TrEMBL record, chains A, B:
InterPro entries: Carboh/pur_kinase_PfkB_CS (IPR002173), PfkB_dom (IPR011611), Ribokinase-like (IPR029056), Tagatose/fructose_Pkinase (IPR017583). The lineage of its organism: Bacteria, Bacillati, Actinomycetota, Actinomycetes, Kitasatosporales. The keyword Nucleotide-binding applies. Residues 12-285 form the Carbohydrate kinase PfkB domain. The keyword Zinc does not apply. It comes from Streptomyces bugieae. This is 1-phosphofructokinase family hexose kinase.
Length: 308, 308
């Protein structure tokens, strides 16, 4: 199975309003809820691709119960660890006039040292069956900032390939533990390296410890810098829609390609096709299958290897 | 005891953000939750004034559980009727720069005919012990639009005085059943009668069926048109703060004055003092006791009776 870790899982709530007017009162006509947090989104896409997938991390309170009830409706196996605090909510307010989204993200519950220990035990046990693990997203209060370095080392000790998708200090610390693959986006690359030139920044990120770097570049697709070479994959055209979750779908594409032992260009093509198909779907963790099938063989992959 | 009815009770969530920027992502640093809906707010203020208070209406789902857990921390007796759907959330986003609030209100669960019947049974039973009842707020989907007329007739049959605080068609229909007191605000008065002149509009509203009308006029206080005369009560000065819940506190003031058989000018003075004290408190259903005590005897009541 493939394991995904979401330390700050979320109950994702979406409100649609005809128009968002600051300092006014809005009657919401359409409310939807989904199990959320980056690793949970990755798990849902992996499961939809037919991979046996287990999601761990923390869940607690009434919002945690709601998250777990929604996760039970998917093909993802729930291995979330109970926590005393309440799982955070994220509220996305979609403006029906402009199509833009205003996002309000709660911080998440504080994790106690005992809860953290319980999680580590669960994580190590799950690694015994995992063919790959994705470590995804921001950290809840109370979790040590070097957590992804620790989780990466535990996975490498167990011989399980690690994909790291986070930002800021947790990314910087996690890279030092030498994950197999890091997936920053362009903003995260720039924040980490100070360079806004993606190829230069991805190479720099690789020197900081990741064995490979696959950087998502929004509508421009994805750039990979690996021991085997460098490639850029781009969709054949631009897709209008909601980009939320596109990066999580790219992670699912990369991770499924890794366990299926696809060559790098095919992994990137899958990741980019899934990203674009997610932009065409209403919500993170979901993708438009027709778009995915259409694009899988139409993504253009360019070799950027120094020898190419 | 005093009974309050909240057919569309809510879990009130407040987010504080440094500044609300549409179409951006906000990390919320401060989250608070309260039991909400107008009748629940009224009940909390009545209980804080020392009145034995029972809150009924509907509650369901994880959000209903959260609402009931928060209500259990107050002195209000919970007589909410279970419903299959989930209690609505309201999200108030407070902009730390301007102090203004952007409000997002979910519609609430659809109430089935069987749930509605169960509620009516509970309501009739509670009326047997009630000294007064407040019917408050908007209607959830599935509840007949003439509901407040039915609930008013049942209370009058049981000899229990009724205060009606709602708007639009439910107000229009409810007035025809001759409640003892209606408490519209200036906007609701204007929408009902077409007149923006409060005294004229309140008199018109009384002709539509209410035995008395007490109209809340925001910072200008409150205007009452009754069989015994007409009065306007105004706070001695303007109060800066959050007006959310000020109208609910006014209802609690009027209702407690009714069961204590206070003369009308004293009821209005109490309602206006409580309103102003709520503006000075952080949340609906709460009031600043020092402001209340200071203002009780400083509210200026003017006689507007035709004979005066």
């Amino acid at each position: 199975m493939i394991l995904t870790v979401t330390l700050n899982a979320a109950l994702d709530i979406t409100y649609r309003v005809p128009r968002l007017r600051p300092h006014r009162t809005h009657r919401i006509t359409e409310v939807s809820e989904r199990p959320g947090g980056k690793g949970v989104n990755v798990a849902r896409v992996l499961a939809a691709l037919g991979h046996r997938t287990v999601a761990t991390g923390f869940a607690g309170g009434g919002t945690g119960d709601a998250l777990r009830a929604l996760l039970a409706e998917t093909a993802v196996t729930d291995a979330l660890v109970p926590v005393g605090g309440a799982t955070r909510r994220t509220v996305a307010v979609v403006d029906g006039t402009t199509g833009d989204t205003t996002q309000l993200n709660e911080p998440g519950p504080t994790v106690s040292p005992a809860e953290w220990d319980t999680f580590l035990g669960t994580y190590r046990e799950l690694l015994g069956e995992a063919r790959a693990v994705a470590l995804c997203g921001s950290l809840p209060p109370g979790v040590p900032v070097d957590v992804y370095a620790r989780l990466t080392r535990a996975a490498r000790t167990a011989g399980v390939p690690v994909l790291l998708d986070t930002s800021g200090e947790p990314l910087r610390r996690g890279l030092a533990a030498r994950p197999d693959l890091a997936k920053p986006n362009a903003d995260e690359l720039a924040a980490l390296t100070g360079s806004t030139e993606p190829l230069r920044a991805a190479r720099d990120t690789r020197r900081r410890g990741a064995h490979a770097v696959a950087a998502s570049l929004g509508p421009d697709g994805m750039l990979a810098v690996t021991a085997d070479g460098s490639w850029q994959a781009a969709p054949p055209r631009r897709f209008a829609g909601n980009p939320t979750g596109a990066g999580d779908s790219a992670v699912a594409g990369l991770l499924s390609g890794l366990v299926e032992d696809l060559p790098w260009p095919a992994r990137l093509a899958r990741a980019v096709a899934l990203s674009a198909a997610t932009v065409r779907a209403p919500a993170a963790g979901e993708f438009d299958r027709a778009t995915y099938e259409e694009l899988r063989e139409r993504v253009v992959v360019t070799d950027h290897s120094p020898a190419a």
